[in-house]
Design brief:
globular; 0% strand; mainly alpha; single chain
Length: 188
């Protein structure tokens, strides 16, 4: 007979078989034993254990939110934070405050990214607008970097293309000359 559980429901009881006696229940591994609350930061976002849990179970590569000052942010940081703010606060999927007036997990997620939790839809809209500005800064920085690097890359690409065309043209000319030359040799 297969392993049975105490309590008769099949859920939540200790196992009677050898695996249960050795502590082989599902709750024996670290994060699962503490439950989902240990994975959620009470101030918003996920804890390191929560990110590790999702990496293990879902294959997700989650990183903590960007909490740097604007002046200290790299273009990649601006892109991440801007995308987060737009994704979560442009069209919020729930209220910012619960019935007791406390911030919901959605509102607290802004705090995990270094922003004040919004209290209403207007506050969420302001965060979404701020996210748009971060994305504009990111695109401007990327365009500037591409213009500096891109001009050299574009010139090199153009030179390489011209060289390839010249090589092909020269090769074709040699082939044509050889064909004509071989015909001339026969006539002579």
């Amino acid at each position: 007979m297969a392993a049975t559980t105490k309590g008769g429901t099949g859920h939540g009881g200790k196992r009677d078989d050898a695996a249960g006696a050795k502590g082989g229940t599902k709750k024996a591994d670290g994060a699962a034993a503490r439950g989902p609350t240990a994975r959620k930061d009470p101030e918003g976002g996920l804890t390191a254990a929560g990110r590790a849990f999702y990496a293990r179970t879902e294959g997700a590569r989650l990183r903590p939110g960007v909490t740097k000052r604007d002046a200290d942010m790299s273009p990649e940081d601006m892109k991440r934070k801007g995308s987060f703010l737009r994704r979560h606060f442009a069209n919020p999927r729930g209220p910012m405050l619960d019935d007791g007036g406390k911030p919901t997990r959605l509102a607290l997620s802004a705090q995990a990214w270094g922003e004040k939790p919004p209290k209403d839809a207007d506050g969420a809209r302001k965060l979404a607008d701020k996210g748009s500005r971060y994305l504009e800064k990111y695109h401007a920085a990327k365009a500037k970097a591409d213009a500096g690097d891109g001009a050299g890359k574009a010139a090199n690409a153009t030179k390489a293309t011209k060289a390839a065309k010249t090589t092909k043209t020269a090769g074709a000319a040699r082939t044509n000359a050889a064909a004509k030359g071989s015909g001339r040799e026969k006539r002579a």
